[in-house]
């Protein structure tokens, strides 16, 4: 049988517990200046009545909503879902709810999501920007007083602190490793050229290739499996085909692997493959896929920690941020050697 009566109010709790509404409010907000006996009695009445604080009323009074907005490109992508889980653990530890919104890397959807979160008065924002150079995003964040921390990608022309992986160095190390195997025609395959991560990885590729005096072979046309398949087929049919492929994100790595398998191209005997970003099946595929591995959980966790340090500045800080230009926390990546690059995994 469903309950149809009115929700119990703070006044109901106070009346039944025999205390004032101010005392009940203090209990709800941590129990400061309330005796243990009264604290237990009020908690007992709250549980008995099933009282829940009125969130709308708390917002109107300017109190914390105990919510954090997370704005990410996708929840289907294991990278961002892992970041979300790590951020959620920190939010829960700080008695807050994580509200997740998805942009699909569309700046217009991103702005819509941010406006909705602001209307809900979220206490803070964790953001992986669709376009890190967006002037409209920078202007929006400059107008609001809500604390913001970006992760995976910084936000240009703002003082927003960021937590990123060392994309440039990771890509450079990957290419140097392939060059060490003797590969001389290394195709860099990717897409989404407006993304900070793609640009940094491309910069690392160029640096290593130029230092080795090798030709830069770059194709940033990949949007989906079909476009990846077309790009790879085109390069393999050229007069001087690549002897190795460096893919700039995990989905592109999967597309490349499937295409090479479909074309019966032996990996790594005919074409080596090394991807940026690890993925769940990378170690179990045959051949297993060598990758640059990012500290995914650390990206989400540290970003959330920094956000709550801004919300609770009296707490001990693990990451000190400057006032005018906050530090960018840059996390190291790791080269995971498997079979697809020409290494023997049994020797690692």
From TrEMBL:
InterPro entries: HTH_LacI, Lambda_DNA-bd_dom_sf, Peripla_BP/Lac1_sug-bd_dom, Peripla_BP_I
Pfam annotation, one family: Peripla_BP_1
Taxonomic superkingdom: Bacteria
CDD domains tied to this protein: HTH_LacI (cd01392), PBP1_LacI_sugar_binding-like (cd06267)
Stored PROSITE patterns: HTH_LACI_1, HTH_LACI_2
Alphabetized GO MF terms: DNA-binding transcription factor activity; transcription cis-regulatory region binding
Keyword DNA-binding found: yes
Entry keyword annotation includes Transcription: yes
Record protein name field: LacI family DNA-binding transcriptional regulator
């Amino acid at each position: 049988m469903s309950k149809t009566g009115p929700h119990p109010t703070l006044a109901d709790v106070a009346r039944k517990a025999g205390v004032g509404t101010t005392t009940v409010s203090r209990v709800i907000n941590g129990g400061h200046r309330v005796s243990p006996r009264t604290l237990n009695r009020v908690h007992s009445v709250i549980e008995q009545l099933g009282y829940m604080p009125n969130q709308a009323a708390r917002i109107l009074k300017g109190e914390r909503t105990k919510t954090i907005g997370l704005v990410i490109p996708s929840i289907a992508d294991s990278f961002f879902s892992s970041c979300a889980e790590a951020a959620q653990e920190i939010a829960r530890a700080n008695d807050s709810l994580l509200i997740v919104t998805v942009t699909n890397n569309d700046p217009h959807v991103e702005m819509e999501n941010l406006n909705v979160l602001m209307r809900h008065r979220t206490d803070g924002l964790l953001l992986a920007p669709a376009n890190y150079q967006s002037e409209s995003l920078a202007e929006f964040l400059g107008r609001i007083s809500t604390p913001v921390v970006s992760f995976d990608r910084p936000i240009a022309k703002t003082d927003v602190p960021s937590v990123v992986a060392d994309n440039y160095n990771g890509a450079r190390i990957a290419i140097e490793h392939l060059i060490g195997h003797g590969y001389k025609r290394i195709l860099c395959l990717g897409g989404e050229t407006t993304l900070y991560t793609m640009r940094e990885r491309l910069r690392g590729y160029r640096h290593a290739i130029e230092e080795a005096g090798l030709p830069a072979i770059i194709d940033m046309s990949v949007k989906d499996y079909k476009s990846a398949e077309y790009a790879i087929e085109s390069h393999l049919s050229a007069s001087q085909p690549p002897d190795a492929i460096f893919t700039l994100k995990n989905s592109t790595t999967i597309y490349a692997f499937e295409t090479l398998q479909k074309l019966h191209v032996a990996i790594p005997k005919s074409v080596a493959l090394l991807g940026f970003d690890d993925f769940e099946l990378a170690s179990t595929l045959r051949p297993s896929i060598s990758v640059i591995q990012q500290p995914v959980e650390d990206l989400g966790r540290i970003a959330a920690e920094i956000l709550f340090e801004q919300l609770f500045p009296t707490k001990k800080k693990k990451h000190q941020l400057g006032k005018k230009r906050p530090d960018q926390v840059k996390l190291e990546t790791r080269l995971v050697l498997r079979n697809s690059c020409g290494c023997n995994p049994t020797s690692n």
